[in-house]
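[job 4471] stage=fold_predict status=RUNNING
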Amino acid sequence: MLKRLILGSFAVAALALPAQAQVKVKLEPFVTGVNTPLAMVQVPGENRMFVIEQFGRVRVIENGELLPEPLIDIRNKLPKLYSDFDERGLLGIALHPDFANNGKFYLAHSTPVDFQLDLAKEFWWDHTNVVEEYQISSDDPNVADGSTVRKISSIDWPQFNHNGHWIGFGTDGMLYVSTGDGGYANDWGIGHNVTEGNGQDNSQLHGKILRVDVDNPSEGRPYGIPDGNLAAGNPDIAPEIWATGFRNPWRCSFDMADGRLFCGDVQQNSYEEVNIVEAGKNYGWRKMEANHCFDYVNPNDHPAECGDTSGFTPPILEYNNCTAKPDGCKGISVTGGFVYRGAHEPWKGKYIFGDWSKNFGAMDGQIFVASEGSDGTWTMEVAEVEGMDSIPYVLAFAQDAAGEVYALTSITTGPVGSLDTIYKIVPAN
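[job 4471] inference complete, writing structure tokens
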């Protein structure tokens, strides 16, 4: 959903790839009446799902019905959100791997800036993004016990946008957290590394995928640092970092079958990208925009040479952003999705993802289907959505225990009202 700053839009166009028969899908309403849904998870072994609303509530869906009372309401913890468009709010949810026994779940959200006597941050920085641990009430499985809250991480944010903060547990039991580069545009401005941008500055946590152990705190932190992170004892690298070089990784997911981590990373004005993220890898931002050299001073003009890029891992997919590359463009802000593992055999192993919209002022969400070839290369196509003249803004995707995939959508550009719908993506015939 959260595209980028409006000043520095995005766009969409895929690599020139072989043509395929167009995938035809139907968006089957699952629940409606939610506020800007940004993530949804299923309770293991149950027909309950938890969905987060950007403006600060976690709702319960039980047997396909949206319950009237929230699991938890943290609206009083959030900064005042802009009603027309905002990238802050309640941004992520994850269930502990042993949720069935310990009832622990995690929320990622924005709070007013925690300036900690740093007056520069008090006057010039925008907010703080946190990850917190909660537990389900012992009296009611559909109510959280707010008194159990434990802060896991806290990262100050210079601008309102590029927050990332998808969160999820890997097959290793570690908690992964995506972070954007800090906001504004071009990885530049207050709170950004002037020389190389935050994406390439491994001394701090913006523009990264983080990986921590929430069960084994150590060294005075509320979490432990697991083996296999990027630093490996290097004091110049923040120990939480697992992978680096991101602009705004907006919605990631682990493949149910093999555990690979897929992330849609919102780029600047010309391209959008999808990555398979691996430990210790560098995905190029701010030196690269997708597969192209990037100049933060002239963001729409891509230099022919960008120096040594041997340490960068390219995206598996890129497409033109309609802002600066309108010819053949597919959108303005990539929304990461899920590898389909459901009942429809022809879709198994395909990555279903999308784009927020092809323009800011009108709903024109996009659904994409990507396929992996035998040589490991990926191709993508725009899905044909049956029965809808236009698709709402595509904020996020979700997956149930059966491997089916859902599109979380909104009919507004900002977190207002409770008018939004979650759709199940099904074959058109």
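[job 4471] summary: The chain is about 0% helix and 40% strand.
[job 4471] exit 0
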